[in-house]
Amino acid sequence: MNALKILEKLKKTHPNAGCELNYSSPFELLIAVILSAQCTDKRVNMITKELFKLYNKPEQFAELTLEELVPIIYSCGFFNNKGKNIIEMSKQLLNRYNGEVPSNMEELVSLPGVGRKTASVVRSVAFKLPAMPVDTHVFRVSRRIGFSNGSTVSDVEHDLCELFNDKYWNDVHHTLIFHGRYICKAQSPKCKECIIKNECKYFNNK
Ligand code: SF4
After folding, report:
1. Is the CB of 180 under 6 A from ligand 1?
2. Residues taking part in catalysis
3. Looking at the 3D structure of the chain, how many domains does it have?
4. Residue 42: enclosing H or E segment and its boundaries?
5. 136, 139, 144: which to mutate for ligand 1, most atoms within 8 A of CB?
6. Backbone phi and psi for residue 198, each to the nearest 5 degrees, phi listed first
7. 107 vs 104, 123, 157, CA distance in Å?
8. pTM for the structure as a whole
9. Is ligand 1 within 6 A of the CB of residue 62?
10. Tens digit of pLDDT for each residue in 49-74?
C-alpha cells in the first residue's frame, strides 16, 4: 500500500480539510475542543459564538460559577462535567502557566478535561506542531482503508505515526476526519463515489 498516494488522492476530494471549530486564540480553541466531546462542531460553534462574546480569557472563566456557565453551554451535552473542567482548567492555567496554554503534550494532558486527543488537536491546530489526534472518524476510516488494524485509539495513533512522516500528520488527521464526515460515514459509507475505493481494504473485501 502506498499510504502517501492514498493521502494525496483524499486531499483532492477534501481540499479544504481543516479544523471546523471557530476560535481566535489557543485558549478559545481549547475551550471549543473540550465542548466538542460527543457534540458536533456546528453546535459548538453556535455555543462559542455567544460564549466568547461574554468571556474568552482564563481570568474570566476562572471567576465563573458552574451556575453561570451551564446555561450558555448546556446544548453541547455533558454540560456539568464540561463546565467544571473548563472552570478548573482556567484556574490551573492561571496558577501554573501564567494564563498561557502550553504546547507541551505532558503539560496539556495534566489540565482538567484535557485528554490526549484534545491535547493533540490543540498542538496540531493552534501551535502547528506534529500531532495525530485520533477521533471516531480517524479511527474508523484508518481501519477501513487498511492504514491500521489496531483495536484501540492508541494502536491506531501509533500505526498512523509509523506509516506517515510527521510532516504529514496534521494533513492525515484533518483529511481522514473530513473523509469520515462526508464520504466514509459510519453507517453507510459512500464507497461508489469514493476516490480511493480501489485501494481500500474494506471495499475490496466486500
Ligand atoms: S471505499 Fe468505502 S470504506 Fe473505503 S474509504 Fe472509501 S468510503 Fe470508506
Report:
1. no
2. 117, 135
3. 2
4. helix 41-54
5. 144
6. -65, -25
7. 5, 11, 20
8. 0.89
9. no
10. 999 999 999 999 999 999 999 999 99
137 ligand 1 Cβ < 6 A: no
CB atoms within 10 A of CB 54: 11
Do residue 31 and residue 103 come from a single domain? Answer: yes
Query: Which sign, positive or negative, has the C-alpha torsion 170, 175, 178, 184?
Result: negative
- 82-to-10, 48, 59, 92, 94 alpha-carbon distances in Å: 34, 13, 17, 15, 18
Cβ neighbours of 10 (radius 10 Å): 23
CA–centroid distance, 170 to ligand 1, in Å, is 21
Q: Mean pLDDT over all residues of the chain?
A: 96
Task: Please tell me the distance from the alpha carbon of residue 193 to that of residue 170, in angstroms, as a whole number.
Answer: 25
Domain boundary among 111, 126, 141: 126
- Full residue range of the structural domain in which residue 69 is found: 26-126
Place of cell 489557543: 26
Question: Same structural domain for residues 136 and 89?
Answer: no
